[in-house]
Structure formats: C-alpha cells, structure tokens
Write a structure and sequence with these properties.
By secondary structure, the protein is mainly α. Helices cover 67% and strands 3% of the residues. The protein has a two-stranded antiparallel sheet. The mean pLDDT is 89.
Length: 127
C-alpha cells in the first residue's frame, strides 16, 4: 500500500510515519520498481500497537524492541515471551495506577460537589 492509504488507515501523517520508519519502528519497507515505498498490510496493526504503547508511556526504543520481536520469525520464544511479559506487567501496573487515580479523583469530585451544594450552587455531575 502507498503512504496515503497507510495515513488514512492509521490516522498518522506521512511525516510521522517516515520518522517512525527512520527510527526502525516500521521494519524494512520494500520499494517498487518506480522506487515508491510499498507498505505491507501488517503495518496497520503495528502502527496501532505503536500508538497504544506510546499513550501508555513506552519509549520508542521499548516499542522498537517489541515490534522487532513480533516481526522476527527467528526470535527465541522464551526471550519473546519474557519481553512481552515484561511489557504486559508495565501495562498492568499503569492500569492499577490509573484506577487508583480515578478513585481519588472521584472522591474529590464528590467532596467538591457536596461543598458546592452547601453554598447553594447547582452541580452538573459527570461520570
């Protein structure tokens, strides 16, 4: 697929995609006889995973390691399982931290809403 289609399917601009390519995050990209890049279908999934991992705070080096491990046919399964287990543990830790933060924010929201009502303000609650 051409870069325009990859942009449309991933929501990322071509400059970002080319940057990721330069950083080794997209793997080896084949070129057609006209020297245009021909992005494989699997990159759509990889880019979505990359974006999710960035949101979770993974560095580009960590993301590169995971993506290379997933793409590698010759990866040592024990090493791959360890690597993905470590990354998954980080995600689980972040989820726990986010849940704790959400509980704290909810508690403070309720406290502030109660005080606002005490002072005669109307409170529009959101969840």
């Amino acid at each position: 697929m051409r870069i325009a289609e990859l942009e449309a399917r991933t929501g990322l601009g071509r400059h970002t995609l080319r940057y990721y390519e330069q950083q080794g995050l997209l793997g080896k990209i084949a070129r057609d006889s006209n020297n245009y890049r021909n992005y494989p279908e699997t990159l759509v999934r990889d880019v979505h995973l990359l974006k999710q991992m960035q949101v979770l705070g993974f560095s580009l080096a960590e993301i590169r390691e995971v993506l290379q491990g997933l793409r590698s046919r010759g990866i040592n399964c024990a090493q791959g399982a360890r690597l993905l287990g470590e990354k998954r543990a980080k995600v689980e830790e972040q989820i726990a931290n986010l849940k704790a933060a959400s509980r704290l924010l909810g508690k403070e929201q309720k406290r502030l809403e109660a005080r606002a009502r005490q002072h005669g303000f109307t409170v529009a609650t959101t969840h």
